[in-house]
Structures are given as C-alpha cells and as structure tokens.
User: Which sequence fits this backbone?
C-alpha cells in the first residue's frame, strides 16, 4: 500500500513538473538603434516559437547603468524605458519592441562608448498566459552595451506565400541591416536645438 501511494505521489510530481508550460520566446541576439518613423529608437525583436499562442503578453524593459551620486558613491541605477507598445493581445508570431529616444529617455545623448564606460545594459521581461494551460509564462533576456548596434535596423523576416499567408524567415532572424549613422547624429543635434 505504501509503495503504491509513493509511486502515485512521484508520478504526480513528475507530471506537474513536465507539464508546466514554458515561454519559449526567442529574442534577437542584438538590439539596434536607428531611426523609426523619423525618431531615434532602440529596437529589438521577440518571436513566439511555441505551437500555441501567448495571450495578454506584456513586456517590461529596464535600462541599468553605473552612476556616481553627489557624494561620489558608485551606484547602479535602473530606469524604466517607455515603449511604443507594452501589450500584445495575442502573441503568436513576431513582436518588435520600440523605445523612442526623446528628451525624457535615459538613452538620450548616449553613445556606444558612453554605454560601455557606464557598464550599461537592458533587461527585458515578458509575461503572458499560455492559451492551452491557462497558466502564466515568463521569459527574460539581457542586452549588454556590446549587444547594442548603433546605426542599424532589424532585417525584414516576413515573407508572403502564394496563397497570401505570412511566414517568418527565422534564418534571417538575427540579421541587421546598416542604417546611416549620420542621420541618427543629426536627429540628436536637431532635438537638442528644439
């Protein structure tokens, strides 16, 4: 009797462990900074590589860097980055997160060198509900200063089939296309004059 109860208990624990859904979200290897709709923006892409959808997905993006207080103490400070869109009702394919770099952004006026000196990084966390199990799933990713490419945009990965359906080309998922950096610098100069 004890052996049967122990076997049932172990079976239940193993089943609950392996039946728990995981997010399986793929993030681009690099984040990029370039113009988006005429505004300098930080961008990265996420893709749901699960067979089912994540509903009510939402992301939170934090920017961290080393700073000195007025007393000269070295501290690590965190800033929440404002995004063009925080929520996605049904996250089934790809989602590009966009942070416009305006006067209120902690990235405003930063350069690749200044981010490296400040040991800056970007922490992305995504939460949502698995539509099959109705359980919350999580995913997290970190971009260091060396993972941010300046003057580049994410390559287009969407293709259309003959019957009109859109497909994602994951072979090009991490590719970036160079965008002219002088446009980014002139945009910063123009914004500082305003």
Assistant:
């Amino acid at each position: 009797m004890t052996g049967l109860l122990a076997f049932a208990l172990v079976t239940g624990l193993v089943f609950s462990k392996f039946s728990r859904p995981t997010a399986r979200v793929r993030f681009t290897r690099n984040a990029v900074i370039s113009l988006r709709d005429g505004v300098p923006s930080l961008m990265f892409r996420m893709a749901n590589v699960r067979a089912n959808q994540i509903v009510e997905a939402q992301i939170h993006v934090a920017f961290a860097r080393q700073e000195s207080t007025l007393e000269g103490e070295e501290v690590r400070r965190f800033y929440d980055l404002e995004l063009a869109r925080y929520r996605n009702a049904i996250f089934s394919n790809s989602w590009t997160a966009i942070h416009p770099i305006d006067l209120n952004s902690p990235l405003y006026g930063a350069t690749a060198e200044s981010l490296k000196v400040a040991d800056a990084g970007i922490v992305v966390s995504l939460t949502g509900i698995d539509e099959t199990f109705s359980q919350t799933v999580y995913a997290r990713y970190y971009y260091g200063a060396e993972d941010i490419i300046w003057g580049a945009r994410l390559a287009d990965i969407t293709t259309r089939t003959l019957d009109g359906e859109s497909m994602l080309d994951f072979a090009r998922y991490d590719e970036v296309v160079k965008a002219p950096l002088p446009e980014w610098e002139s945009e910063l100069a123009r914004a500082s004059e305003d």
Residues 58 and 87 are 4 Å apart (CA to CA).
